[in-house]
Amino acid sequence: MANPFMTAGTSVVATKSTTLPEFREFDWDFDKKTFLYDEYGNHIIKTQNDGLKVWIKKALLVQRYRYRAYFDDYGCELEDKFIGKVPNDEISDSELFKYVCEAILVNPYIIDVYKVSSSFNKKKITLSIDVKTIYGDMTTSIEV
C-alpha cells in the first residue's frame, strides 16, 4: 500500500544533523576521583580533544553494567576480561582492541580508533590509544 501522506514526486530522506556542538567535559582528578575546580570554585571544563581525553578515561574506568547511573552502552568490560590475568597472545590483544573500541566509539565525536598499545602488570593495564575525532587525531594514555 502506498503512503497516503506522500505526494507525487517527493521522497523521504533521513536527515541527521551533521553539526555537533563543541564537546565539553568537566575536568576530573583521576587520582582523587573528584572534579577539578578553578581558584573561584567553578568547575574546570575541558573542550574538544582535551575534553575527549577526559571522557575516554572515564569511559574506560567505569565497569559496564555495574552502575545503574549509566546507560548500558557506557563503560568498558576490561576488569572482567583482563585485570588480574596475563594475556600475552595475539588473541588477547585483538580482544583488548575490540573492548576499547566498543567503549569509546559510542561517542559521536570519536570517528575511529587507530591503535591500542598495551602493557600488562599483575593488577593494571596501561593503554595508549590513538583516536581520530572530529577535531583531529590524538593520543591518550590511561592505566586501568
Q: Can you give a write-up of this model?
A:
The chain is an alpha+beta fold and 144 residues long. The protein has a single domain (24-143), classed as Nuclear Transport Factor 2, Chain: A (Roll), CATH 3.10.450.40. It is built from three helices and seven strands, in the order ββββαααβββ. The strands form three sheets. Strands 5-6-7 form a three-stranded antiparallel sheet, with helices on one face. Strands 1-4 form a two-stranded antiparallel ribbon. Strands 2-3 form a two-stranded antiparallel ribbon. The protein is globular, with a radius of gyration of 19 Å. The N and C termini lie far apart (55 Å). The model is unreliable at 1-6 and 12-17 (pLDDT under 50).
| Beta-strand share of residues | 25-35%
CATH domain topology: Nuclear Transport Factor 2, Chain: A
Which spans have pLDDT < 50 for at least 5 consecutive residues?
1-6, 12-17
Radius of gyration: 19 Å
Largest sheet: 3 strands, antiparallel
Instruction: Give the CA-based shape.
Output: globular
What structural category do the secondary elements indicate? alpha+beta
Distance between the first and last residues' Cα: 55 Å
Note the run of SSEs as H and E.
Answer: EEEEHHHEEE
Q: Please, how many helices?
A: 3
Supply the CATH architecture.
Roll
* Strand order within the widest beta sheet: 5-6-7
Protein name: DUF2634 domain-containing protein
Organism: Megasphaera hexanoica
Pfam family, one: Sheath_initiator
InterPro entries: Sheath_initiator (IPR020288)
